[in-house]
Each structure stands twice: as structure tokens, then as C-alpha cells.
Design brief:
The structure is a single chain. It is built from 13 helices and 22 strands. It folds into 2 domains: 246 residues, 3-Layer(bba) Sandwich (FAD/NAD(P)-binding domain); 147 residues, Orthogonal Bundle (Helicase, Ruva Protein, domain 3). Strand 9 and strand 10 form a beta hairpin. Helix 9 packs across helix 12. Strands 18-17-14-15-16-13-19 form a 7-stranded antiparallel β-sheet. Strands 7-2-1-11-21 form a 5-stranded parallel β-sheet, covered by helices on one side.
């Protein structure tokens, strides 16, 4: 019987411990916090978007970095498997818009409690308030971990599930990066992903609190479109946020240059919008442009649009030239939002970067450099869009690592 030590009691750690325990291993789960799944508690605004009810192909389409690495993991433990596991443990689930899956109770705590109950039933040892200070390895093989509270813990296998470096108050402080590097692993620098964006433009800040729905946000690197989607976004005191912005941020983490544009009327072609605008102008006589545009945009945005299109706001409808009208259409269909950066890494939903997947066996999650050492979850250089995909990656890689470690 293998003695398996799982470091980190988050999403990946709990499923790794579960996979190993069900595989017959003697499991010790080490968690630095006072409870398991501390970061899970804040996912989905406390409701916990546990997974996404889609097939493997569509799932991988939502993975931004290294999607092919997940073939075996998703095959070993799919979203359907997660949707079957939780109800079997007394936590029924429901599917909402966008195939997002939540516990029926809408309480993230119920997910964690269900998994913890099963670990206890399987006689897994759970060490809370226990901080690992390092890994022990010799001649390319793992020996165990050293803890501050219990000294050295010997193990045949060790599964690292320490997470990334976002939301450090939940325990994700990046300890795993240093341990892996000390054993020769390549670790890509942690970068923020799924994070609000900052802007120094005055007009962006003037729109603070304005929420837009059914708009299209497009991210381009040169002429290449990296992301384009219709949805919701929000202007804030520092820049922009909301579902569209968080998803777009997943693609710009490693870019030096890019442009972000907003289509305020994605349901209309430029020609259709021009025709509508022409009708509005013909019927408005001496009405000022900033007032006229209230029929197209929220009032605060309508006031700013003329200046953003290099037209005096007080210009009367009957004075608008064809060239100015073209600028109004261009501004509506491709309004560029100047971006200065992102919010701090500590505010990111997930961390981009981590352990290079080239040094991890995708069929088992075992290190190719240190036998008996496994890596799962956000510590891997794999990340995805919002919608339950990142939690499922943690669950799938955790289960695969746990099962392999138990063998």
C-alpha cells in the first residue's frame, strides 16, 4: 500500500486525495489553513461554479494555455464525472446559462463539506493548520515533505496541489513554484489571468459604474483576433471589468502589444447603423448631437461619444457631415479602449504560468524529473476562461494524479 502525501487542500488537493484513497493508498492531506477548500469558498461569488456541462472538445476550446495537455486528465475525470460525483456524496447540482454547473444549494461550502466527508469515510488523514516548508528527494526520487508543525513526513508519493499566486489570503502564496525549481523543474513566472484591466483614459473613468450588456469586446494582437465575444462589461474607477473583460484578460497575459475595441451595436452592421443614424439626424433638426445619441446609448455614454469621435458635442443634427457620420459609426462599431495594464496578481481569479507541462507526464501528472512527485491544479501552466473550466482542470488533474500515485 503506497503512502501518498497530498500538499494543499484546495480543489485539486481534495480530488487528488480522493483519487488516491479510492485507489487503496494510505493518504495524508496537508493543508496550511484552518479548513479545506478555502479558495473554493469564494468561487462563483460563493456559489461555486464547479464545472461546465460540455464535452471534452468544447472544454478544451475554452482552455487558453496548453489545452492538449489535458486529453488524459479529462478522459480520466470529465465534467460528467464531476456532475455524478457530487450528487453521490449528497450535494446535488444544477446547470445554468452557459452550461455552468452549481450546487443546488448555491453554497460553495456544501461542495467542500461533501468532499471532506468522503475523505473522512475513506480514512484519509487530514492535517489542518500545517505548513509544508519543503520537499525531500534523493537520487531523482521523492522521499516526503518537511512540515513546520510535524517535522518530516515520509511518503512513497507526493502530490503537489499548492495552487497559484492569486488570492494569497486563501493560502495560494506560490510556495510550490520554489519547491519545484529547487528540484530542477522549469517554472514560468506567475501572471494574472481572468482579471480586471486598468486604463488611464479620463473618459473611461468618467463612465465609472456604467454597465453595458449585449456588447462585443474584441482583443487583437496586430491583425490577429485573439478573443471576440458578446456579453457584459463594467466601467470602474480604475478601468474596466465584467465577464467579457475577465475572459479577454486570459489572452493578453503574455502580450507586449494589443488593441481592445468595443462594438456597442453588435446586432447591426456598419451599413445598418449608418442608415439608422441618418434617419435620426434627418428627424432631429437642431437637436444637439449629445442629446440625439441618447436614443442609441445610455445617457452618460451618449454625452461622451461625440468627443470620442472628434465631433463637438453641441453640434446640431442638421450640421453633421457625411465624414462625421462615418466617424460616429466607426466609434460605435470599434471604440478603442486604452489599456494600461491589469489589476494586481493578488486580485486575479487564477494565475497564468507555473510548472512547465513539458516536464510533467500528461497520462499520470508525474514529474519526468523526480519519480514519485506529481503536480496538479493551478500549479501547472494551464489556464482557461471563466465558466467552471478552471475548477474542472483542478479536479481532473487531481484525480488523475491521485489514481496514478496509488498504483
Amino acid at each position: 500500500m503506497n503512502k501518498v502525501i497530498v500538499v494543499g487542500g484546495g480543489a485539486a488537493g481534495m480530488l487528488a486525495a480522493l483519487g488516491a484513497a479510492r485507489g487503496g493508498a494510505m493518504v495524508t492531506l496537508v493543508e496550511r489553513n484552518e479548513k479545506l477548500g478555502k479558495k473554493v469558498y469564494i468561487t462563483g461569488k460563493g456559489r461555486c461554479n464547479v464545472t461546465n456541462a460540455c464535452d471534452a472538445e468544447r472544454f478544451r476550446a475554452h482552455v487558453v494555455k496548453n489545452p492538449r495537455f489535458l486529453f488524459s486528465a479529462l478522459n480520466a475525470f470529465s465534467p460528467d464525472d464531476m456532475m455524478e460525483l457530487l450528487p453521490s456524496l449528497g450535494c446535488p447540482v444544477m446547470v445554468e446559462r452557459g452550461d455552468r454547473v452549481f450546487p443546488q444549494s448555491e453554497k460553495a461550502s456544501d461542495v467542500t463539506k461533501a468532499l471532506e466527508r468522503e475523505l473522512v469515510r475513506l480514512h484519509a488523514q487530514i492535517l489542518l493548520n500545517t505548513r509544508v516548508s519543503g520537499l525531500a528527494a534523493q537520487t531523482g526520487h521523492i522521499l516526503g515533505v518537511t512540515t513546520m508543525e510535524h517535522g518530516f513526513l515520509a511518503g512513497d508519493k507526493v502530490i503537489l496541489c499548492t495552487g497559484g499566486q492569486s488570492y494569497p489570503t486563501t493560502g495560494s502564496t506560490g510556495d510550490g513554484y520554489g519547491w519545484l525549481q529547487s528540484l530542477g523543474h522549469t517554472v514560468y513566472p506567475p501572471l494574472p489571468s481572468l482579471i480586471p484591466l486598468t486604463s488611464g483614459a479620463d473618459w473611461v473613468k468618467e463612465l465609472q459604474g456604467l454597465s453595458l450588456k449585449n456588447v462585443r469586446l474584441t482583443l487583437k494582437n496586430g491583425k490577429k483576433t485573439l478573443y471576440t465575444e458578446i456579453g457584459e462589461m463594467l466601467f470602474t474607477h480604475f478601468g474596466i471589468s465584467g465577464p467579457l473583460v475577465l475572459s479577454a484578460s486570459a489572452y493578453l497575459a503574455e502580450l507586449d502589444s494589443y488593441t481592445l475595441t468595443l462594438d456597442l451595436k453588435p446586432g447591426l452592421t456598419a451599413e445598418q447603423l449608418d442608415a439608422r443614424l441618418l434617419r435620426e439626424l434627418d428627424a432631429s433638426g437642431k437637436k444637439q448631437l449629445k442629446t440625439l445619441l441618447c436614443s442609441l446609448y445610455p445617457a452618460r455614454l451618449a454625452e461622451l461619444m461625440p468627443a470620442l469621435c472628434a465631433i463637438p458635442p453641441e453640434t446640431q443634427a442638421n450640421e453633421i457631415t457625411k465624414e462625421q457620420r462615418a466617424r460616429l459609426v466607426q466609434g460605435a462599431k470599434a471604440l478603442e479602449i486604452p489599456i494600461s495594464g491589469t489589476r494586481p496578481l493578488s486580485e486575479a481569479v487564477i494565475t497564468r504560468g507555473g510548472a512547465s507541462v513539458r516536464e510533467i507526464n500528461p497520462a499520470t501528472m508525474e514529474s519526468k524529473l523526480i519519480s514519485g512527485l506529481y503536480v496538479a491544479g493551478e500549479l501547472l501552466d494551464v489556464d482557461a476562461l471563466t465558466g467552471g473550466f478552471n475548477l474542472q482542470i483542478a479536479f481532473s488533474t487531481g484525480v488523475l494524479a491521485g489514481r496514478a500515485a496509488a498504483e
